[in-house]
Amino acid sequence: MLKAKTKVHVIPHTHWDREWYFTTSRSKIYLAKQVKEVLETLENNEDFKYYLLDAQASLLDDYLKWYPEDRGRLEALIAAKRIMTGPWYTQTDQLVISGESIVRNLYYGQSIAESFGHSMAVGYVPDAFGQAAQMPQIYKQFGIDTFLFWRGVADNRLKQTEFTWKGSDGSEVFAVQIPFGYYYGGNIPEGEDDILPYLNEQVGKLEAKASTEHVYFPNGFDQAPIRKNLPELINRFNEVDEEREYVLNEPERFLQEIKEAATSLPVLEGELTEGKHSRIHKTIFSTRADLKQLNNQIENFITNTLEPVLTISHSLGHDYPHETVAEIWKLMFENAAHDSIGGCNSDTTNQDVFFRYKQARDLGDNLLELHMRMIAQKINQEETFSFTVFNALPYVRKGYVEFDAYLPEKEFTIRDVNGEQLPFTIKEKTELTDYVLNQHIYLNPSKKVYLPEKVYAAKLVVKVNDIPSLGYSQFYFDLKENELGDQPNEKVDSIENDHYRIQFEDDCTLTITHKPTGSVYKNQMIFEENGDDGDSYNYSPPRKDLIISSVGSDGTVDVGRNAVEEIMNINLLMEVPRDLEERADGKCSVDMPLSVSVVLRSGDPLIHFNVDLDNQALSHRLRVVFATDIASKFSYADQPFGIIKRPVALPELDVWEEEEWQEKPISIEPMQSFVNVHDEGHGFTVFTEGVREYEIIGEHFDTIALTLFRTFGYMGKEDLLYRPGRASGEKIIETPDAQMIGELKFTFAYQMNTGGFDDAELVRTAKEYLSPLTVYQLADFLNGRLIFSNRDEEAQFEKEYSLFEVSPDHTAAVSAIKKAERSDAYILRCFNPYETLSSRVDIKDHTLEAVALNETTAMENIKDLSHCQLQTYVIK
Fold first, then answer.
1. Catalytic residue among 17, 54, 127, 241
2. What domains does the chain contain, in order, with CATH numbers?
3. Closest CA to 382 of 495, 307, 506, 478
4. Do 422 and 800 form a contact (C-beta atoms < 8 A)?
5. With 50 as the cut, is the pLDDT of residue 1 above it?
6. Does the global pTM surpass 0.70?
7. Active-site residue flag, 507
């Protein structure tokens, strides 16, 4: 029986980085030229049947801003499935960003592509630095059951290009790896004597990896122009190569054919982050920590505060600003593209990234302020100093709210709607009477407005009770003497609450006593600094490193106690090397002062840490470490829509140099918001609002290390310890901004718990940690230029309100609450946050309809969600 001919599917495409060592401005200028040429080529040559526009619908938005007259041309070619685009808005990273960012990226990308006639139903990921373990489930819920990618799989566990990829929840997709990269067929020779040797070598390597007669041969590379004579070249291939059949194709048709031919596929499970054949740059999680912090804060703000409050506002009769929210998300998607979010860019490009974050944050802050104000001004209230507290989670919350306010000179007590006095403290206070009152505008001079004799801008912390689920409640200032005064700072060295006692030791470490068990843990909160000989893609230690610890450094401490918290203020002075040259010589000539506040609050199981430091050193890394008593084999962290269990040391470490891996297989890992180690009886967890990177270290793997920042001086470097060989990126581009010289701020939290992992409810704790109660102050004397004046509204809302409430028992974790995109219903997205337990969602007096992530396709309403299972509900 004759062997079937190899069918070589030649896929014309471009991989379009929206920015990298170049800026978005340059990319857009050349994109306009590129798309214009694609349109002309496909319209004028019927033999040029297909072209893949990198699966990024944002390229359509970019092009049509300048050439709106070409929309009809694009619609015709996309509807005919000749130009392939979608399902992404931008080619997003999957490990650095949040699950909601991934979902919204696909939602907007698919919606835009469909509005042009067709969205490619392929999880096409040509260059992302690793694949998240939950992607099969996400793809399936967007109607995508095939996956085409490059990076993340080694031949140690996959000998062929075709396999079944199984996600954390058990969802499966048919997967094909592009084994040698998306640019593999980008340089086709045209000389008669060159073509056949080229095909035999290039296609021959693909045949050796394939398990069917089909191979994927991509013709394109970064920002590549269309190869106009490609159909003629393919005809020549068929003439000179009798052993193979060459066809011009696109990913959907290719995957349909190869899927029908593939049999007995191996199954790979979980995330794909192996760097043997292609670099995955596993430490981009901490590249440009300042930009990573902005991304993480804004992502959390949008999904944990802004969208739920907008949902509350809509339920009270206000318009839901879909287009404004979409604009905010699209700014985030532009920054979520794999180079942009990685920080693997020139400094000028990262300045563009920062500005988009600024725009997104400004839009979000002001949109939130407007809707809180529209609600507050319609609430019945008699008090001059009234405050509305918003709870963005679908269950009753109590706890602490920290906010800025304008205060009177008089003494006051804070009371809730029931008249109960609330403990509070004023952390900062500045007199601004003239400035604030001069901003006031008398829209109605006949109305008498109370103007305080003095006005102070202040930062308050208030302990509040039972704020209604997904709703609001009021508290107000009773202008009487405060009975719960603060205490002055004291020269003592310990703080405590009902969970912990924390002692500052002479060697500048903390000793934490866990009161429920009486266990004492020493060597807590140690700052470790070492060199970074890496670049914008990879952390890599210097060949001559010097590790500096905060243990034994110069340190002072004072303690403040007030009605709501105990605060330990610690000042540390670490002496560190100025640069890698000093480090190699063992010299330390630069002071790195750290100001650390450690905060305990009554009833709060978290220890809160705030770190301010002044960085004047170059090319180094700073981590904070917490010692546990658990010798760990595995770490546990949250991932998009679930948790993930990872080994603390990879077996590939024994063979990577011998096998010549592209990167050292390190256990520096990503997370969404926390990392945990535990056994059957107790556990330790670090939560972060900043960099999402951790490592389990120590001789017995018993210490959690959270990366705060790392710095470097070049976009790319050669011959790193952790990444041998060529440079990634451009080695001639210096990145002085990436040295992050100046003042830096970090926040994180630590928790000890008894019981097992599921008992600790860590995902819920993380959600609350990243979903602060939000406050709006309404007062007539503030109505003016300072916040824009607003007319009076009829008071018609009650002082408390709740939209709906989720039952508390083994409740699935909340990922998103928002208004549906295409109806007046509300969306509640949840997932199972447990290791072994099932979870469910019940809402009193509401019927839940399950839909896919696209919000339109009906799904089975699964009563009990299993491990990492994700479900979206429509609430009408």
1. 127
2. 6-269 (3.20.110.10), 289-377 (1.20.1270.50), 385-488+777-799 (2.60.40), 495-770 (2.70.98.30), 805-875 (2.60.40.2220)
3. 478
4. no
5. no
6. yes
7. no
